Amino acid sequence: MQLQRSSSQDGELQFHYRWQQQGQTVDFSFQLPEQSVQQHLSSFRRYSPQLANTLMRQALQQELGRRNTAGMQVELPPTGSPFPLKVKARRAADARELQQQLTAQLQQARQDYLQQIYHTELRLQPNRQVIMVDHQRILADSLQDLLPVAGALQQKFPYTTTREISQFLLDWLQRIPYQSLNERSQSSAAGFLPPLQLIQQHRGDCDSKVVLMAALLRLLLPDVPLVIVYLPNHAVLGIGMQSQSSDQQLRLDGQNFVLADPTGPALQPVGEITARYHLYLQPGIANYRRL
User: Fold this and answer.
1) Among residues 86, 162, 166, 221, which is most buried (max CB within 10 A)?
2) pLDDT value, residue 68
3) At the top level of its lineage, which domain of life is listed (predicted)?
4) Per-domain boundaries in the chain
5) Residue 236 half-sphere exposure, CB side, CA atoms within 13 Å?
6) How confident is the model at residue 186 (pLDDT cuts 50, 70, 90)?
7) CA separation (Å) from 177 to 3, 74, 215?
8) Cβ–Cβ < 8 Å for 115, 121
9) 3-state secondary structure at position 47
10) Neighbours of 263 (CB within 10 A)
11) What CATH number belongs to 125-290?
12) pLDDT score at 120
């Protein structure tokens, strides 16, 4: 795929893609305000356990400074070590009450940090609690910035079906260079790029591309149900649309979702994902989140 980028004097970034599809030349162009690209989800960061620990410790010390803890002893873990803390008091009931209140303060500080950097804590099968990128919130907060891309798609396909527009998005995104999983080894967000950053940097990993594709489908087809399906070291998109006999599907909450994998570089059509992931597409086994 060829990509031509340029900047206009009025602060617009122009993107023009061209590729060959079944012997036909495909062109796709749009413009994005440079300011939107630069400011897009600017508070998104990688999750840092060390920083989370520091912020929790600071919140705890501030809370202790506001309380009368005479006759009580609060034992903090060594700096850099994970919580929990220990509270001692003459009366066991007083110790339990203070420990519950301080633990709630710690949890709130942790949640505040996760929200600030666009992360969330999810329970995945089998009974795993993980901190990961908040794909749902990133999608929602990207819609306004992606309106120019959706507008270009609307002009290109004024009348289309869910499958046709999904296939076009796959054809486009699968050709955008894939970012290796090796770059994600240090953090759940090490390879993730929010939608406009993916477009600007012209690269992205699996969940980055899933979120961009889902956001554009949400703008173009707001009533179509969407889910992100988490597989081992991978993510794909589930689209609530009419299926065909050859489609790889996943039934969730009584509804069928046709699967689509925008990752690339393999050019897989709607309804096809790599065979090694089929084992994980069973009710009660597949991890997913609605978008």
Assistant:
1) 166
2) 67
3) Bacteria
4) 49-116, 125-290
5) 28
6) very low
7) 11, 52, 19
8) no
9) coil
10) 25
11) 3.10.620
12) 95
Report the alpha-carbon distance of residue 225 to residue 241 in Å, rounded: 8
Residue owning tokens 């009366």: 91
| Cβ count near 83 (within 10 Å) | 16
Q: Per-residue pLDDT tens for 209-257?
A: 999 999 999 999 999 999 999 998 899 999 999 999 999 999 988 899 9
Find out whether 259 and 286 touch, Cβ atoms under 8 Å.
Answer: no
For residue range 136-168, what is the model confidence (pLDDT) as tens digits?
999 999 999 999 999 999 999 998 899 999 999
**Exposed/middle/buried for residue 90 (C-beta within 10 Å: 0-12, 13-18, 19+):** exposed
Q: How confident is the model at residue 182 (pLDDT cuts 50, 70, 90)?
A: very low
Distance CA 128, CA 120 (A): 14
Give which of 193, 202, 209 is closest to 45, Cα–Cα. 193
Q: Are the beta carbons of 194 and 44 closer than 8 angstroms? A: yes
SS in 3 state form for 99-157? HHHHHHHHHHHHHHHHHHCCEEEEEECCCEEEEEECHHHHHHHHCCCCHHHHHHHHHHC
CA distance 110 to 207: 24
Please determine, for residue 192, whether its predicted confidence score (pLDDT) is greater than 70. yes
Residue 19 CA to residue 214 CA, distance in Å, equals 22
What tens digit of pLDDT does each residue of 62-96 get? 877 776 666 667 776 666 666 667 777 767 777 77
The residues, any chain, with a CB within 8 Å of residue 42's CB and separated by 6 or more, are none
